[in-house]
Amino acid sequence: MKEDLIEVLKAMLTPDQVNTGTEDLYDAAADRYKKYAKARKVLDVPIPVAIVYPKNTEEVAKILSYCNEEKINVIARGGKTATEGGLENWKETTIILDALYLDKILKIDPYNMQATVEAGVALQDLEDELRKIGYTTGHSPQSKPVAKFGGLVATRSIGQFSTLYGGIEDMVVGLECVFPNGHVSRIKNVSRRAGGPDIRHIVIGNEGTLCYITEVTVKIFKYFPENNRFFGYLIKDVETGIKILREVMVNGYRPSVARTYSEEDAAQHFYHFYENKCVLIFMAEGRENIVEATSQGIHEAVEKFKDGIVKEVDSSLIENWFNHLNWSQKDIDDEVEGMLENDYHAGFTTEISSDWETIPKIYNNVIERIRKEFPRAHDLTMLGGHSSHSYINGTNMYFVYNYEIHCAPEDEMRIYHHPLQTIIVEETLKLGGSMCHHHGIGKYRSEWTKDEHGSAYFMLEKLKEAYDPNGIMNFGTIFPQEEGMKYIK
Ligand SMILES: Cc1cc2nc3c(=O)[nH]c(=O)nc-3n(C[C@H](O)[C@H](O)[C@H](O)COP(=O)(O)OP(=O)(O)OC[C@H]3O[C@@H](n4cnc5c(N)ncnc54)[C@H](O)[C@@H]3O)c2cc1C
C-alpha cells in the first residue's frame, strides 16, 4: 500500500517532488518536542511514507483531495521549528506536505502597506527585502531566520516586538488556503470589514488541522532603527516587574519590547550584569516623537515603583543582547549535534497567559508546586520564567526549565517534560488563564484542549467536523485523540 501511494504521488506530480529518502523521512517523523530522542535515533512514532513538495495551489488541492478520498493523514510543514509536536506523526500512513517550492514573494506594496507571499517564504527573506526600502514586517519571533509564513500563521506566532506591532493575527490581511476536499478559499485583502464573523481566524492558528495555507498577505510598517532606544533595570522581584509593565501598558504606551525576567531566568540571559536580581527591559521604536513619549512613559512607570528598582543598567547591554537573540538553522543544528554527546542537559519552555492580577499568582503557584511535587526536582538546574508579551489587560508568562537527563533518551519527555508541563497547565487553567500563549497546542497539549476552551470547545469541534470530516489533517494536533496517548504518557 505504501509503495502504491508513492507511485500515485509521483504520477500526480513529478518524481522529484516526492522524497522517500530514509534520513529525511526519519527527520519528518517528529519536531523539536522530542528533539533528544530524535537526535539519539530512538523515536517511538511511525515514519511518514513520503515528503511531497507541491509547486502551486492546484497541486496542493490535487494532493489533499486524493488523501481525503483515501483517508491518508497529511502533515503540513514549513520551516520545521515547531516545538509542541505539531509536526510529529502519529499515523502509519502519513504524507508530509512541505512548502519548500511555495517560495515566492508575490508583491510588496508600500502604498497600501502590505506584502503578499507564498506560504514557504521564510520570514527573514521578506524582512530583508522590506528593510532595503525602509520597511519592516514588525514580526520577529526568535525563529525568524528559519520559520516560514504558512507555519507562522498556522501557529498564531508572536514576535519580540509584539507590544508595538501585535501578533501574527494582527498582521494578516488576507490569505489563500486549501481544504481537504480540494476547495480553494481566498480571503480578500481589505482594511476592515463587518461581513460576518472574521473568517481569517478559522485559518490563523489551525496548525494544519483544518486547511493548508498557500498564500498570505501581511501588513508592513515604516522602520526607523536610528531612533531605537533600550532600557534595562535590575529589580527586586517578578511582581515589581509585572506592575511596571502594567503601568506602561494601561497608560497607553506601546514600547516594542516590554519584558520582566525572574532572577533564575535572568541568570542565563544577563549573567554578565544581573547581580542575582530580576531584570526588567524595554525597547522604544518608531518616529522620534513617539519614541520620546514612550521613553517618558517608561521613566514615569519606573519612578512610580522605584522602591522595587535596584538600579538602572547601561542600555548598550540590552541592545547588544537583542542583537544576538535569534536562532539560525546552524544554531538549531548545533543543538542537535550537542545532544549526541554522552551527557545531555535539556532546556524547555511552556508559555501561558492571563490577566494582570492573576499572572503573578500562577507564577508563584507553579514554582512552588514544581519544587514540592516534581519527583525529579533534584535534576532541575534552572526553574524560572519571564513575561515577554503584554497587552492592555494582561501579559504572558514563559516558564523556563532546564534539567539534567538521567534516563533513557526515549523516556525523557514522559519523565521530565510532561509532568512539568502538566503542573504549569493545571495551575494556569485552575485560575482561568490560557495554557498556550504562542507556540500552538500541537500534540502535547491536546489532552487539555477541552479544558482550555470549556463550553466553547463546541465551536472548535464543529469546525473540524465541517472542514475535515475524514480527519486527515494532522491527526492528534489540537483535537485530543485517545489513540495518541501512548506517545504522551
Ligand atoms: C529557536 C526557536 C525560537 C522560537 N521562537 C518563537 C517566538 O519567538 N515566537 C513564536 O511564536 N514561536 C517561536 N517558536 C516556535 C515556532 O518557530 C513557531 O511556531 C513558528 O511559527 C513555526 O513556523 P514554521 O514555518 O517553522 O512551521 P512548522 O514548524 O513547519 O509547522 C508548525 C505547525 O504549523 C503547521 N503548518 C506549517 N505550514 C503550514 C501551512 N502551510 N498550512 C497549514 N499548516 C501549516 C504544521 O503542520 C505544524 O502544526 C520558536 C521555535 C524555535 C525552534
TrEMBL record:
Family matches, as PROSITE patterns: FAD_PCMH
FAD-binding PCMH-type domain boundaries: 44-223
Keyword presence, Transmembrane helix: no
Domain of life: Bacteria
Residues the record marks as active site: 398 (proton donor/acceptor)
Gene3D superfamilies: 3.30.300.330, 3.30.465.10
GO molecular function: alkylglycerone-phosphate synthase activity; FAD binding; oxidoreductase activity
Cofactor(s) it depends on: FAD
Protein residues bound to FAD: 207-213
Ranges that cross the membrane: none
UniProt keyword Oxidoreductase, yes or no: yes
Keywords: FAD, Flavoprotein, Oxidoreductase
Gene Ontology biological-process annotations: lipid biosynthetic process
Residues flagged as site, Important for enzyme activity: 259
Cross-referenced InterPro entries: Alkyl-DHAP_Synthase, FAD-bd_oxidored_4_C, FAD-bd_PCMH, FAD-bd_PCMH-like_sf, FAD-bd_PCMH_sub2, FAD-linked_Oxase-like_C, Oxid_FAD_bind_N
Similarity comment: family membership: Belongs to the FAD-binding oxidoreductase/transferase type 4 family.
Descriptive protein name: Alkyldihydroxyacetonephosphate synthase
Source organism of this protein record: Proteiniclasticum ruminis
